Amino acid sequence: MASAVEQLFAVKARIAAAEREAGRDAGAVTLVAVSKTFEAADIRPVIEAGQGVFGENRVQEAQAKWPALKAAFPDIELHLIGPLQSNKAKEAVALFDVIETIDREKIAAELAKEIARQGRSPKLYVQVNTGSEPQKAGIEPREAVAFVVRCREVHGLAIEGLMCIPPADENPGPHFALLEKLSKEAGVAKLSMGMSGDYETAIAFGATSVRVGSAIFGSR
Ligand SMILES: *Cc1c(COP(=O)(O)O)cnc(C)c1O
C-alpha cells in the first residue's frame, strides 16, 4: 500500500491538474488534509513532507493530538470541519485557525463571546446543508444568506466562506453549484467543498479548499 506521503503527493498532483483543467490559477485551491481518527505518528510524516493545513471533525480528538503538533510545527493551520456544540466554543476558538461549521445563532453568539474574551480570531465559515438532509448539520440553503448577514451584523463575526457536504448518494455537482451561488449572494470568497471522492469536481465548480482524508491517510 502507498504511504500517506506518497498519496499526499498524488492528491496534490491531481489538484494541480484539476486547477489547470478548470482554468483556475495554479495554487488557487488549498488542500485541507483530514486527519481525523489518525494518530500524531501518522500525521507527522505528512507535515514533514510539507503539508501545512489539516482538518479535524471533533474538538475533543483534536485537543488530544494537535497542541503538541502545533508546538512542534507553529505554522500549521488547523480547520474544524465537524459539528460544533456551543459548550465547546471556548476550546474551538483556542485551538482552531479556521472554524468551518457555524450553522446556528447560538453557535455564532458563543463564538463571538469567546473571540472577544480570548482575543484570538479564527477565520469563520458557515456550513450549508445543501441537500436539506434532516440528520446533517448546516443551515438550510434558503436561510443561508440571511444567516451570514446576521452573523456579521448581530454578532460582529467576519464570515469568510461557506462549506458543504453533499448527500452521499447524489451527484455532488448541483450541490457545489448551489454553494457557489450562495457565496456570491452572501459576498463571501471562500468555498470549502469536495472530499476524497469528488474533489476534482468541486474544483471545477470553484472550490477554494478541498477536504481530503482517506485518499491521503487511507481508509478509516
Ligand atoms: C471526514 C471528512 C472529510 C474527509 O472525507 P474523505 O472522504 O475521507 O476524504 C471531509 N469533510 C468532512 C466534514 C469530514 O468529516
UniProtKB/TrEMBL annotation:
CDD domains the record matches: PLPDE_III_YBL036c_like
Entry-annotated residues carrying N6-(pyridoxal phosphate)lysine: 36
Annotated Pfam families? Ala_racemase_N
What does the UniProt keyword field contain? Answer: Pyridoxal phosphate
UniProt xrefs under InterPro entries: Ala_racemase_N (IPR001608), PLP-binding_barrel (IPR029066), PyrdxlP_homeostasis (IPR011078)
Q: Which co-factors does it depend on?
A: pyridoxal 5'-phosphate
GO terms, molecular function = pyridoxal phosphate binding
Q: Which residue numbers delimit the Alanine racemase N-terminal domain?
A: 10-219
**Leader peptide range in chain numbering:** none
HAMAP family reported in the protein's UniProt record = PLP_homeostasis
Q: Enumerate the NCBIfam families for this protein.
A: YggS family pyridoxal phosphate-dependent enzyme (TIGR00044)
Homology family:
Belongs to the pyridoxal phosphate-binding protein YggS/PROSC family.
Function in brief: Pyridoxal 5'-phosphate (PLP)-binding protein, which is involved in PLP homeostasis.
State the name under which the record lists this protein: Pyridoxal phosphate homeostasis protein
